[in-house]
Amino acid sequence: MNSTEDRRITRTKEAICAALVALIEEKGFEALSVKDIAIKANINRGTFYLHYKDKFDLLDQTLDQVVQDMERILLEIRLVSVADFKETWIPKAIATKLFEYFNDNASLIQAILVTKGNFVLVTKLKQLMLKNIFEKDEAISIKKEKLLVPCEYLASYIASAHFGVVQEWLDRGRRETPEEMAEILLNITFRGPLVAAGVFS
Amino acid sequence: MNSTEDRRITRTKEAICAALVALIEEKGFEALSVKDIAIKANINRGTFYLHYKDKFDLLDQTLDQVVQDMERILLEIRLVSVADFKETWIPKAIATKLFEYFNDNASLIQAILVTKGNFVLVTKLKQLMLKNIFEKDEAISIKKEKLLVPCEYLASYIASAHFGVVQEWLDRGRRETPEEMAEILLNITFRGPLVAAGVFS
DNA sequence: GAAATAATCAACTCACTGTTCAATAAATAC
DNA sequence: GTATTTATTGAACAGTGAGTTGATTATTTC
After folding, report:
1. Does residue B100 come out as left (phi exceeding 0), alpha (psi in the -120 to 50 range) or beta?
2. pLDDT 10s digit of each residue in chain B, 201 long?
3. Which of A88, A94, A194, B38 would be a feasible disulfide site paired with A199, CB 3.0-4.6 Å?
4. Could you give the number of structural domains in chain B?
5. Closest CA-bearing residue to C1' of C20
6. Which of A148, A163, A170, A189 has the highest number of chain B CBs within 10 A, making it the mutation to test binding with B?
7. What are A99-143's pLDDT values in tens digits?
8. Is residue B200 part of a domain?
9. Nearest-angstrom CA–CA distance, A185 and A197
10. Residue A143: left (phi > 0), alpha (psi -120 to 50), or beta?
11. Cβ-count burial of B89 within 10 angstroms (0-12 exposed, 13-18 middle, 19+ buried)?
């Protein structure tokens, strides 16, 4: 009756997850089969079904983990001061931590961003923004009355944009450091895309 | 030897496309089968294979059509004057036309935005921006030297953000008119998300 | 070392795939 | 309108993967 997981389970799940990532990169999620996963992970196909209902369940569980990790990092936003917020949108330290997480799990993130994972992650970020920034009535939040456009569209705009940049960074081979990426993203969001583009120089 | 398509082919393809849209909304693209499509479209399953290699081919061809339509509308940007550009990023008329297209094909667009279609459309918009705005050396283009951040990230940011807002609009049931949406989108992009949010009021 | 449990292996049913071919229906061409 | 061409149908086919089961083996935990 120990809370720690049997080593065999851990090893099997890790092998399955690694196989999933490799196969998504190889042929895309729709085209891969449970049989493919079993072969790539060097496990019996029946073993897969001891842990997951089907390949969709596997993707869902994998996504859940990423969402949890992301939420944990992002919710540190509560600790920031108003001054920081007005200057840099979200603290650069938080953004950097997020990019470090994406950096450490690059293959996984890149793989799930080309599945419905993109939609799931964008939706989660949007929800967090709406809940923690546009809704709450604290010092850090933005008053709804001050909004010049509906907050749902603002949240969708920013959330979607951010993951677009993350994906571009991963696709280009992560040439910039996490800190540089945080700087770029905050720069665009803080100044606005067109000012950052130098249109009004 | 006529260039026009046999009426039967047109009807069959339209039925297949409509079935695809309905089924994506119903159970998602990964989970739907060719058999599902044939039943929903009221055609023989063998007929499907007379027109498409498999369901992936169907999605690809459907996406190609949307990409072509979008490109046709967007490339009218070439006709705009520099003054218009500096004032509204892309002409409001173009943005409105795009939203009208999305409005007329709402089910289709909403269905493909939850497949890899999101990635395909964002990538296309990004490419068009890089080619027509950041790369060219004409009056309308933005000089690369003036950029404060790499243009690939700017393009990814804006392209991704725009389709995020389109998806939000579709998911919320298209409460705003195409013109209002064009206004909102241009407002955010032109002023920057945080100014539009009233942070600096 | 003993008990518990995870992984394996083989077998099986089921559903969907992708293809074929003869028969039929509907379009186009004259 | 009739003839010709062509799309669609229907049925049958082998092939592949899904998901499950039960007995057996291997590994881990206590």
Report:
1. alpha
2. 445 889 999 999 999 999 999 999 999 998 999 999 999 999 999 999 999 999 999 999 999 999 999 999 988 766 666 566 666 667 788 899 999 999 999 999 999 999 899 999 999 999 998 888 776 655 556 677 777 889 999 999 999 999 999 999 999 999 999 999 999 999 999 888 888 877 765
3. A194
4. 2
5. B46
6. A148
7. 999 999 999 999 999 989 999 999 999 999 888 877 665 555 667
8. no
9. 13
10. beta
11. buried
CA of B191 to C1' of C14 (A): 59
CATH number at residue B3: 1.10.10.60
- Cβ contact (<8 Å) for B114 and A118? no
B157 → closest Cβ in A143, A153, A165: A165
Q: Determine the distance from the C-alpha atom of residue B89 to the mean position of all C-alpha atoms in its chain, rounded to a whole number.
A: 18
Residues B138 and B173 in one domain: yes
Evaluate whether residue B67 is within a structural domain.
yes
Q: How far apart are CA B104 and CA B57, in angstroms?
A: 24
Subunit contact A189:B191, Cβ cutoff 8 A? no
Please tell me whether any atom of strand C lies within 7 Å of the Cβ of A6: yes
Task: Let me know whether B187 and B166 are in one domain.
Answer: yes
The residue type found at A48 is F
Do B65 and B44 share a structural domain? Answer: no
Out of A11, A29, A52, a domain closes at A52
Q: Which domain holds residue A165?
A: 56-194
CA neighbor of A73 nearest in space, from A178, A144, A170 = A178
Give yes or no: residues A21 and A89 share one domain: no
Do B33 and B71 sit in the same domain of this protein? no
| A45 and A63 co-located in one domain | no
Q: Per the domain annotation, does A200 fall within a domain?
A: no
Inter-chain contacts counted by CB atoms under 8 A, chains A and B: 163
Token couple for B38:
């044939």
Contact at CB, A164 and B114, closer than 8 angstroms: no
Judge if B93 and B123 occupy the same domain.
Answer: yes
B34 lies in some domain: yes
